[in-house]
Amino acid sequence: EVSYCDALQYGSLMSELRTYYDAFGYQPRTGEAPDHVSVETGFRSFLRMKEAFARETGDSEHASVTAEAAERFRQEHLCWVAGPLAARLADSGLGYLADAGEALLKRVGPIPQTNTETPGGLRLLSGESTFSCGDFQPGEAEGGCAETV
Predict the structure, then answer these.
(1) 39, 91, 111, 113: which has the fewest C-beta neighbours closer than 10 Å?
(2) In this structure, is the dihedral angle defined by the CA atoms of residues 48, 36, 134 and 19, taken in order, positive or negative?
(3) With 50 as the cut, is the pLDDT of residue 145 above it?
(4) Residues 26-64: b if buried by 16+ CB within 10 A, e if exposed
């Protein structure tokens, strides 16, 4: 996730992800970083499984909390990755990767129109078809990202 926006504070993002993971007992057994798309999609799947279990056992309060967390995680993390990743994978020339990127984007959707901030509260630079982070202007030293998808 952080690779799509170098204007983010890496430590803040990792702390936020760890807080999510710890709150729900998610302990992935992988060598990937906590912000890797495979770990993040695994977490959302884990939340949906916990929600289904809570509903099946009649625990509507836990089901509701878990469903809300899954939706917030989708909006605050996965939808920021899905579009740019799908675009990059579509250009990779590898059909199975392009299909995987397209499936992710279809599943989590684009950045919500009502969400005008990136993870970490940075403002978007422009409209819906651009993935942008921070107040980066081309030529500035601080860096940032602005990628048309």
Answers:
(1) 113
(2) positive
(3) no
(4) beeeeeeebbbbebbbbbbebbeebbeebeeeeeeeebe
